[in-house]
Amino acid sequence: MSASSSSGSGIKRIGDSILREIKVDEAIGMVLAHDLTQIVPGSFKGRLFRKGHRVAAEDIPKLKDIGKEHLYVMELAPGDLHEDDAALRLAAALLGDHLTMGEPHEGKVTLKASITGLASVAKPVVDGINAIGDIALATVMNDRVAREGESIAATRAIPLIVPEGKVAEAEWIAAEYRAREGRAPLSVRPLRKMRAGLLTTGTEVFTGRIADKFGPAVELKLRELGSELAEQRFAPDDRQTIVKEILYFLEQGYDMILVSGGMSVDPDDRTPGAIADAGCEIVSYGTPMLPGSMLLFGYLRGIPIFGLPGCVMHDPYTSFDVLLPRVLAGDTIRREEISAMGYGGLHR
Ligand SMILES: Nc1nc2c(c(=O)[nH]1)N[C@H]1C(S)=C(S)[C@@H](COP(=O)(O)OP(=O)(O)OC[C@H]3O[C@@H](n4cnc5c(N)ncnc54)[C@H](O)[C@@H]3O)O[C@H]1N2
Ligand code: MOO
């Protein structure tokens, strides 16, 4: 459906700007004031005509096919912004490290990660900007992994003409955040390349009764984030042996120690006790996330250590997949943060 003037006069005033409606049949030679979108469910959604396109006779049937009976001629007053310019200015105000800003498209500008890292999103800035009205900012959640090339945010003007004051207010919110925090409201944080030691516990695996599935799963999760499984060792469900092997990894100087299996409630589940015996400062045993509620996280002489429950080898996204990228980004994880991860923490 085409946007129609409420006045019936074919003229819509927005502040001092004017949108004048022209019948499509009389529009040959006119320049389009904004991108025009076609949607064919299941096959196409995108720009059929670009802003600035000069309407030709052969365009008329296509315009009618997408529901246009009228087109706007825009007379922009000083102090008003075209939707594309509003979206561009908003995006530029937010842009931080490792993000690229795309061209405006139908009044929208997308910010994409130029590396694989952690999306850093200042929620108060997002909320503040969206409270202004007429301009919209949609982002991914803070601390979510962003793959290279993935969109992490998009800005959009809601009306075709936006009072510049609204964009200026958004720019002020973003600038104030930059000044206070010393960083942009939106950025991607790089991940360190870490070398991890994995101790796989379980007498059934150690004795060869069953094949190990933890090694390949953890290796993949590390590799996908640019890190490395440097060494995997095996131990039976014996507390002393597990302690000894953890201390061996510590001596090797790995950046991270992972211990798999034996994390739950059975008498043979020795891993949490062994991690404690090794001298680990336990930040949290148990996380309010599923899968992965039985995960343990702590530090052993400053080295991050994870106790990984069985689900980590089985499920693609667990509490480990939430916490691992944080560790790779160099964050020190505190107990209060983990206890606050239950809201939105049901990942299945
Ligand atoms: N009554 C309760 N039952 C369970 C609880 C609970 O709180 N109360 N927690 C559940 C959760 S959550 C998880 S996760 C699982 C697994 O916990 P564990 O880490 O203790 O896993 P294991 O008991 O060591 O093994 C479970 C299962 O996986 C196989 N396994 C273990 N390691 C390997 C390996 N490296 N390669 C292949 N397969 C492996 C093991 O043989 C068992 O079949 O507990 C829930 N239950
Ligand atoms: O640690 Mo368990 O899923 O919560 O898999």
TrEMBL record:
SUPFAM superfamilies linked to this entry: Molybdenum cofactor biosynthesis proteins
A UniProt-annotated Pfam family: MoCF_biosynth
Q: Which cofactor does it need?
A: Mg(2+)
Q: Which UniProt keywords apply?
A: Magnesium, Metal-binding, Molybdenum, Molybdenum cofactor biosynthesis, Transferase
**Family per record:** Belongs to the MoeA family.
Mind telling me which PANTHER family this protein's record contains? MOLYBDOPTERIN BIOSYNTHESIS PROTEIN, MOLYBDOPTERIN MOLYBDENUMTRANSFERASE
Protein name per Swiss-Prot or TrEMBL: Molybdopterin molybdenumtransferase
